[in-house]
Description:
By secondary structure, the chain is an alpha/beta fold. 43% of the residues lie in helices and 17% in strands. The protein has a seven-stranded mixed β-sheet, with helices on both faces.
Amino acid sequence: MTRKMAQNIIALVYDFDGTLSPGNMQEETIFRAYGIDKNKFWAKSQALVRERGYEQTLAYLRLLIDDPVFRKKPLRKANLKKLACHVPYYPGVAEGYFDQLEDFMKTIPEVAECGIKLEHYIISSGLKEILEGTSIRKYFKQIYACEYDCRGGRPVFPKLVINDTNKTQFLFRINKGKFKLSESINQHMPEEERRIPFRNMIYIGDGITDVPSMTVMRKTGGNAIAVYDPARPVPQEVKKMVAEKRAEHFAPADFRPDKLLVKILHRTLKKLIYSIAYRSSSDRSSDWVQRHM
Ligand SMILES: [Mg+2]
């Protein structure tokens, strides 16, 4: 017996560093508080990858526990949350972008007619503890990011590592509505039972680390947009992502109204809204015919 879902939720899935925020979230928070030179830290992290065979993300997570600076003064979960107030955002992100998108939804009659809802998600290789403390936290249904197991408030071991390729697991969690890591996502689920079909998803990311997620989007009928620092020219990486059809659109990461990115988002949302409305009226027609045969 299949449990048909209304499939009237649209998901906007964001990478964080370089997408909603310039730079890496550790830099303006942890590094600033500890007086760490970011270039030296990332070089040390790269050395672990090169010389000791570490996976990229695990390398930095280890340093945040094991580097002499952190051995002397360990990170504390509560402090990470407090440091989140220093996370910088691209224009518009913390100045109304999320509310303005909701207002835009209200202007389309089909949204109310079909009960269409918008949900926001973050999938990041940064630190969940920092993201949980950000001022924009309330707008997100779920935040997936690297997490530490903490004892006495201090990180002792990474309990969740998110890197470029396993980011895609979380797209499937959003797709199937199985948000908790304890819930298996490997069992087959018919398309009509999935909470948010891929075609109702918009993935926004900034770089090479988003390629696996964008590829999943493109192959499943989802939508992908590449963004870049508005203060810089279009990076080669972004041009390549579009040329190789990993992303359909690209725009500066400027989330203010009337900017290109928001225009692209509005257009994509309209496409999804009308397609949901179209499907729901076609479902109603076939239900009626079934009843009157
Ligand atoms: Mg990024």
